[in-house]
């Protein structure tokens, strides 16, 4: 829970904005070295992309165990089907797409076990959690979390995927989130606006 | 009142989730092990050697022989020729199927690969002599890769 929040203010942090690009470049580099015969390339590719896959998959509301299984299935698919990747630059996108398809499949296969639709329940949960944590919100990390956490369920999931992925396929994303195909772009914009407002409302130095 | 840019907001989202739902500690190492295992061919199905024939040895150490392997419905015929310490493999796959053939020499990490032609043929040239195996990777992603057992050239 505690964070060592350093320099987290309202100002943009160029390092973070640039980070996703570094991830995809490193992924391509690792993939190229692996295909060229260096096993360490595969290690590096796995190290840099596993966290991305984790966050994308967890946005599908899978349990930790189920999410780990999906991530592993994705890696095995890559190793066994490396010839399917014709463009090394696209390896990151191939991995996240494969992971999302598998996550969607697994999530749908297990929905029947859920007694209540998550979508109905979701609006209630964030506020409860926020209330519990309101006492300790003086911490900057908690404040940011509270802002993200109070977003509608759909926004939280969409923004999590968009934040970790590199230009996800909107068509698939729309199907996964149960939204009309054309609405992902506008919805993302609205979700970002809501987050902006939430950050201001939770106080801190953004105002 | 400063407006946070899209990138800054997404960076916040990344930071928040990285902290609140972190990647389990063991996950990266476990995935590296799983990927390395799959990559090592230990879980790749092996073809069976069903035929081996030696052709007449040529002059000064050049020789050729054929090997035939099967796996499911796939038949693989190899003609292996050695000349001056290097070898070449001419292969024929029946039924013809788009796939990449990778030669995995026993003692080097060098990679020799060829794509099967429409007629099912492929060739790998300038291979080292010694222990060798071929890995067959169908382009149909629904089909797992398989490999020949190690043979000696």
TrEMBL record, chain A:
Entry superkingdom: Bacteria
Name of this protein: Sigma-70 family RNA polymerase sigma factor
Family the entry assigns: Belongs to the sigma-70 factor family. ECF subfamily.
Keywords linked to the UniProt accession: DNA-binding, Sigma factor, Transcription, Transcription regulation
UniProt domain RNA polymerase sigma-70 region: residue ranges: 50-103
Pfam families in alphabetical order: Sigma70_r2
Species lineage: Bacteria, Bacillati, Actinomycetota, Actinomycetes, Propionibacteriales
Region (Disordered): 1-21
Record bears the keyword NADP: no
TrEMBL record, chain B:
The organism's place on the tree of life at top rank: Bacteria
Name of this protein: Carboxypeptidase regulatory-like domain-containing protein
């Amino acid at each position: 829970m505690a964070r060592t929040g350093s320099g987290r203010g309202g100002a943009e942090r160029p390092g973070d904005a640039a980070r996703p690009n570094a991830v995809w470049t490193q992924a391509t580099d690792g993939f190229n070295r692996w295909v060229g015969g260096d096993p360490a390339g595969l290690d590096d590719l796995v190290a840099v992309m596993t966290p991305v896959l984790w966050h994308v998959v967890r946005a599908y509301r899978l349990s930790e165990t189920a999410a780990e299984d999906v991530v592993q299935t994705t890696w095995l698919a890559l190793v066994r089907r490396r010839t399917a990747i014709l463009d090394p630059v696209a390896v990151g996108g191939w991995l996240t797409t494969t992971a999302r398809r598998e996550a969607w499949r697994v999530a749908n296969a297990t929905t029947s076990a859920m007694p209540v639709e998550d979508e109905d329940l979701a609006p209630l949960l964030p506020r409860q959690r926020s209330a519990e944590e309101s006492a300790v919100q003086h911490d900057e990390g908690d404040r940011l979390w509270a802002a993200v956490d109070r977003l509608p369920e759909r926004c939280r999931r969409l923004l999590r995927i968009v934040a970790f992925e590199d230009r996800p396929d909107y068509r698939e994303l729309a199907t996964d989130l149960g939204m009309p195909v054309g609405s992902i772009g506008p919805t993302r914009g609205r979700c970002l606006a809501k987050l902006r407002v939430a950050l201001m409302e939770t106080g801190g130095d953004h105002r | 009142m400063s407006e946070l840019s899209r990138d800054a907001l997404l960076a916040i989202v990344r930071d928040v989730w990285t902290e609140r739902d972190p990647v389990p500690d063991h996950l990266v190492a476990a995935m590296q092990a799983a990927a390395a295992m799959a990559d090592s061919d230990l879980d790749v199905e092996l073809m069976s050697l069903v035929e081996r024939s030696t052709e007449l040895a040529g002059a000064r150490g050049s020789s050729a022989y054929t090997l035939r392997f099967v796996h499911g419905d796939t038949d693989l015929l190899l003609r292996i020729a050695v000349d001056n310490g290097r070898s070449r493999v001419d292969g024929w796959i029946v039924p013809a199927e788009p796939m990449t053939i990778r030669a995995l020499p026993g003692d080097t990490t060098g990679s020799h690969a060829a794509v099967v032609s429409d007629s099912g043929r492929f060739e790998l040239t300038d291979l080292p002599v010694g222990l060798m195996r071929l890995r067959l990777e169908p382009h149909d992603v629904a089909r797992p890769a398989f490999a020949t057992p190690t043979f000696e050239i």
